[in-house]
Amino acid sequence: MGSNSCLNFAITHHCVYLSPSFSPNSKLHNPNPNHNQFLLSRSSFIPIATSSFALHSNHTLSHPRSKKLPLRNAPNFYVAASAKAVPLKVMISGAPASGKGTQCELITQKYGLVHIAAGDLLRVEVAAASENGKRAKEYMEKGELVPDEIVVMMVKERLLQPDSQEKGWLLDGYPRSSSQAAALEDFGIHPDIFILLEVPEDNLVERVVGRRLDPLTGKIYHLKYSPPESEEIASRLTQRFDDTEERVKLRLHTHHQNVEAVLSTYKDITVKVNGNVAKENVFAQIDAALTELLEQREVNSGSLTA
Ligand SMILES: Nc1ncnc2c1ncn2[C@@H]1O[C@H](COP(=O)(O)OP(=O)(O)O)[C@@H](O)[C@H]1O
């Protein structure tokens, strides 16, 4: 215990070399989202017997921009793979068009998590016309949940892939029922936080019906609120097959039927976010919740080694 405390003291001390703008919270309130330094924790560091500062190839600091940090000034410590720091496990839920896609992009940009969207995994199967895809499409067209035997293993396998394990994950659109939540618990997969985006229902229908995808860039537009920048882009926009008014109403109905059951599984770690404000303000709420979670971890790890 004594030597651990000593090590952690030294590690904390050496953190200051990671960024010229370091402050106790700078890893959490990172002005440059690409530096990813907020992912570092004391457990990210192990000593090595060399005076240079090495970077592991899979490390969060392996981002090219992080090489600009003045690492030369930090002798004797090796920044170990991010797997050493416990990666974040985040679930995000919300009605169709509640803004999950936009927020997931902002979260992954800042926190470097692997975004896993159950709907996207299913659409890949549908597009490939696999057996599962053909079955899934029948349910998706009706706005109903695809049966667990298709969805559960698909999501579990994605969560257990090395990138999700190393970087942490952001799971979007799963679980949508208590049985899906229970299946993950049975596999020993627990999130750190469950984020619920709340948007009034009237706004949701309008958002869905006007939603379009640019298949070339993956960018999502809204014909009224976020129209394409040029005629050329407008001409290639596509609409999701289930983004019609009739189908969104069915999807909303399914969502309301299931959300309470899922919430009861995660009530202790649920954070409700007002999704009916500008996307930056929605993200600010999520960012604050994730920051608090990381700070809490830091405090807990400090109290364990004190
Ligand atoms: N976890 C899941 N379990 C069962 N079906 C799902 C799940 N996630 C997505 N689906 C199916 O895929 C459809 C599209 O999902 P998604 O892309 O997340 O959009 P939405 O936010 O409109 O539900 C859903 O309406 C449902 O039929």
From TrEMBL:
HAMAP family: Adenylate_kinase_Adk. Gene3D superfamilies: P-loop containing nucleotide triphosphate hydrolases (3.40.50.300). CDD domains: ADK. It catalyses: AMP + ATP = 2 ADP. It comes from Durio zibethinus. The keyword Coiled coil does not apply. Keywords: ATP-binding, Chloroplast, Kinase, Nucleotide-binding, Plastid, Transferase. Pfam families: ADK. This is adenylate kinase. Belongs to the adenylate kinase family. InterPro entries: Adenyl_kin_sub, Adenylat/UMP-CMP_kin, Adenylat_kinase_CS, P-loop_NTPase. GO terms for cellular component: chloroplast.
